[in-house]
Amino acid sequence: MKYIEEFQDPGLARRLLDDIHSTVTRPWALMEVCGGQTHTIIRHGIDQLLSEQVELIHGPGCPVCVTPLEVIDKALEIASRPEVIFCSFGDMLRVPGTGRDLFQVRGEGGDVRVVYSPLDALKVARQNPDREVVFFGIGFETTAPPNAMTVYQARKLGITNFSLLVSHVRVPPAIEAIMRSPSCRVQGFLAAGHVCSVMGTAEYPDLAARHRVPIVVTGFEPLDILEGVRRAVRQLERGEHTVENAYPRAVRPEGNPAALAMLADVFEVTDRAWRGIGVIPDSGWRLSERFREYDAEHRFSVTGITTREPAACRSGEVLQGLLKPHECEAFGTLCTPRNPLGATMVSSEGACAAYYLYRRLELGPAPARPATTPAQPTAPTAPLEASPVV
Q: Is the entire prediction scored with pTM above 0.85?
C-alpha cells in the first residue's frame, strides 16, 4: 500500500496546494496528456482545489477514444466473419462504430471475446487451429511492447492463424500537433508516466525547447498530479521550458531498453489518424514488413469502409481540449455510458466518462472537496465488462 497511502496524504496535498497558490501570479493553462490522470483529477477534485489561475485542460490521452472510426468499422467487419474469433480488451466492445459496436456484432452471432492480454488471444489461436484469431491491438506506447511480443511469439511458435489489427499511437507527435494548432491555449504539459517508463524522456526536450513549454512527467496518484502542476507552474512563472521527471520511482531517462528493442523490430512508425482530430504525421505504429503477414488489415483486405460520426457528438473537441465534457449539449442526455455517442463516454480513461461517473454534470465550478475524497456516483455507470488500463 506504500504508493497508495503515501501519495494520497491530505496533509501533503494541502502543502502542495499552498505552494502552488503562493507561486502563481497569472493565469496558466496546463494539459494532462493521459486519460488516467484526467480521472484522478476529476475523481479527487484537484482542478477545483487549485488556484483559479491554473486551468487543467484534458488532452487526447485515452487510447480507446482516439482509435479512428475507420479502424473501428474494420474491426466490426472482421469480427462479423464466421471464420474469425475476434479478441479485444473490454473497453472496445461498446465503442460505437458507424451504426453499431462489437457488443452488437456478438449479439448477432459473431465470436467476440474479451481478453486481458494479447497472449490470451494467442492461446485462443493455439486452441482453435481451424479458426482465424484476431487481436485488436490499440493503445499508446504502454501496450505496444506486449502486442509486439505476441506477434514475435506467434512467429517463433509457428502459429499462422493469428493476426493483429493495429491502431497504436504515439504521444510526442500528438503534443507537436496540439502546439501547432491555431486554437492551442496550452502552456505546459503533464506527461504520462507509464508512457515514459517504456519510451524514456529523450523525445521531449526538443518539443519543450521548440514550443517553449515545460513538460513534467508525472504519475497517477493525487500527489503525483499536484507535484507535476507545482513544477510546471514554477517553470512558467520563471520563464523556463525544460523537461522534468517528477515520477522517478517508475521512469528512467533511457526508458526500457528491452521494450524499445522489441518495438523497433516488430513495428515501424507511420502516419496515424486520431478519432476526432485527424491524421497526425508519424504518430503511430504499424507492423514492419518482416511481420506484415500478421497484419489483420492485410490478411482480410477490408475495403469499402464508409464512416459516419453522430452529428450530436462533440468528442473531437473534448479530445483537443477545446471543450469540457459537460459543455456538450448531448452530455448526460443523449450520450451516457450505457448509450454512448462517442468513445470518450465509453472508455475507463475517457474524459466524458470521468465527468459522468464523478457527477460533473453541470456547467460552472462544483463545490470543492478534499483532494483525497472521491465523489461517489449516484447511478450505476460501471461498464458491462472490464478491461486493463491501456
A: yes
